[in-house]
Amino acid sequence: MAPIYDFDLITIGGGSGGVRASRIAAGHGARVAVVEEDRLGGTCVLRGCVPKKLLVYGAAFAADFADAAGFGWHIGQPVHDWPALIKAKNVELDRLAGIYQGLMDNAGVTVLQGRGVVTGAHEVTVDGKTYTAERILIAVGGWPHIPDIPGLRDHAISSNEALDLAERPDEIVIMGSGYIAVEFAGIFAGFGAKTHLVFRADQPLRGFDQDMRQGLMDAMRDRGITLHAGANIMSVSGADDTGKHIVTLDNGQILHADAVMAATGRSPNIAGIGLDALGVLLNSKGAIKVNDAAQTSVPSIYAIGDVTDRINLTPVAIAEGHGFADRIYGQQNRQMDYNNVPSAVFSQPPLATVGLTEEQAIEQGLPVKVYAASFRAMKNTISGRDEKTVMKLIVNTANDKVIGVHMLGADAAEIIQGIAIAVKAGATKADFDATIGIHPTAAEEFVTMRTARGE
User: Which active-site residues does the annotation give?
Assistant: First the structure.
């Protein structure tokens, strides 16, 4: 007789990926439980994409107010109410968490409130009570990592706390060069804080196209952010006589700030959930190793999302979760395709991309032509802002296919989302050239580039 379990599937983690996997599995007839120690929604809804984007929207008004003068608007000194913003943001998060709960209820998924620990290949213990399942899905995501630098862990906030500060700091030092660091630098600067970004590299956003990185550096400086490139924080001490933290850099510079933020990456959130005792294998970065079916080294245990450190994006986790549920419970061969996944950095201005960078294409030995443009957007010609829009197409000359598209500028994410469909479908440069542009827009530049770099 087959073993009898309490559930067919227990998912640990009620974020976007875990919720999607559980809901689809239940729709296929599986008996499913989700274990969550916080509210449903996970990093994206509660501590990441959604609240951060709301703050990005709020911060962007500062540039709009400044630009309006060039169009004849006379605006007095704007005054911002930070607590009101945080309150409005929290109301929206409550609404979204309720929607996630409704999704689980409507799908017939049991929500187990508490911290889940895997205590056997088919066993999960939640706050002292044990449940069994034929399969276990780990979808606990990542958690901010703060380096072991003297005083940093004692005095720094992470992106979690940055979204819930009771007051906006007048001056802040942000350590890091990834998308979280860059986005929060834009947020705090937009709201009027004197903002320092400290990073070891010569440019932020390692792995992105070099021209986009340089363009963003120029724009961040123009928007008043002080960039400390090639520097690292050596120590952070408590408040001085003025109530500010003392931040010492390895170049000898000393900064004084109301807040220090560590935005130096995220690590898989698997500490203390029992995987090591079961022999679940991890990779060199501490992420769970999985095969193409999302299966770990323990056959009954699966993992999706940031905890596997493949492409750490919410839509990817959702697609992985959906695919897992369809394969296991829906008898459908739904596989995640990791090629040409679009992404965006909600910096100010935003940056978005799909496909290969110029550097990646060259490293892969592909014969490429590069089409690039850098110009002041039409709005900026009257607003007086010197900020440049930067756009690039990477074309494989062997088959004329567009294999990379990059943009820095207003509405970049919205534009690249549409272009990503064309890249995914295998559009050629000739297809781009044959497409009529919408005039006047910045996006039309993608279909009017006729001369490759160097020609």
Answer: 439
